[in-house]
Amino acid sequence: MSRPTSREICLAARPSGIPTAADFTLVWTDSEPLKDREVLVRNLFMSVDPYMRGRMNEGKSYVPPFELGKPLEGGAVGDVIESRAPEFKPGDVVTSSFGWREYFVATPEQLHPVGREIQPLSVYLGTLGMTGMTAWAGLNLVEVKAGDVIFISGAAGAVGNVAGQLARLRGCRVVGSAGSAEKVGFLREECGFDAAFNYKAGPVLEQLNREAPEGIDVYFDNVGGETLEAALSALRVHGRIVACGGISGYNDAKPLPGPSNLFNIITKRLTMKGLIVSDWLERRAEFEKEVGGYFKAGQVKHKETVAKGIDQAVGAFIGLFQGQNIGKMVVELS
């Protein structure tokens, strides 16, 4: 077969502050003929996620930094076009970490098969993908249970909205914060949150105390900063914190000081646990069975914001830090 040409996005420079288009470059790459046990995949959708911002910095972290001049990486779902491995055949649908490009070659071990019967296929990057699994893992990490009052920041994002929906299914009272009236409406009307507020409309602690006057048992932190400080004040004795993300500080050139009330962890005997979803991959089948069942039954909804074309991927990524997405931000490549 003729070899496809793939457009790929490479990191051109390490961003200072919020990334700009100048930090990225779009290149063309010709595919090589397949070797034994290789698979050619055409990406249909790719994911852009806030955590990718940390990988654009130089220095050691929980994942290696992106290399300058090399294609970026991230979640993607695509069609198998050609295979020289018995595990896959043309027409199979797979997820991978080879986003930010239109085509790629991989080994079977680098691919995860998913079913075409669930639509849209981009759900495998959101509710049934790594962001959905992050939400599910976070609730399990601190043993969220019926009767808990849980507060979720960044609640209209890819992780937050699923965490809230799953917590409701567990019998929790769910409170969320988001950055616009539209997002607050989405949380209340579509995701079934018991309460939600716009963190830009006033002090976070005042609004949280109004929505949860008797305090909270769990804080699912996607934001950090002022919101973490508010949650530390609102948490009850023996409360739990899921430390999932801190998007409020991802673009800071110098980290800001921590919450002024961190001593509450001692006085309230709080538990704070960090969450990296890759630690949970051995339980992926359990997640897919549970949350996949909820999704098929209509008990969990999938929400996404879609940009079209790989040339729009950089803008979609930057848009995450400007609050442009409701639910999962994906880029459609097909």
Q: pLDDT below 50 for ≥5 consecutive residues: which ranges? A: none
Strand content: 25-35%
Number of helices: 9
Give the count of structural domains: 2
Fraction of residues in H or I helices:
10-25%
The third-level CATH topology of the largest domain is: Quinone Oxidoreductase, Chain A, domain 1
Output the helix-strand order: EEEHEEEEHEHEHEHEHEHEHEHE
Task: Give the strand tally.
Answer: 15
Taking the sheet with the most strands, its summary is: 7 strands, mixed
CATH class categorisation of the largest domain = Alpha Beta
Radius of gyration, CA atoms, in whole angstroms: 20 Å
Model description:
With 334 residues, the chain is of the alpha/beta class. The protein folds into two domains: 5-126 and 303-332, Medium-chain alcohol dehydrogenases, catalytic domain (Quinone Oxidoreductase, Chain A, domain 1, Alpha-Beta Complex), CATH 3.90.180.10; 130-278, Rossmann fold. It is 24% helix and 25% strand. It is built from nine helices and 15 strands. The chain has helices at residues 52-55, 130-141, 158-169, 181-189, 204-211, 225-234, 264-267, 284-296, 313-320, and strands at 5-11, 24-30, 39-47, 76-83, 93-96, 103-106, 112-114, 149-152, 173-178, 195-198, 216-221, 235-243, 271-274, 304-308, 328-332. The strands form three sheets. Strands 3, 4, 5, 6, 7, 14 and 15 form a seven-stranded mixed beta sheet that branches. A six-stranded parallel beta sheet has the order 10-9-8-11-12-13, sandwiched between helices. Strands 1-2 form a two-stranded antiparallel sheet. Helix 4 (181-189) links the parallel strand 9 and strand 10. The protein is globular and about 65 Å long. The model has no long low-confidence stretch (mean pLDDT 96).
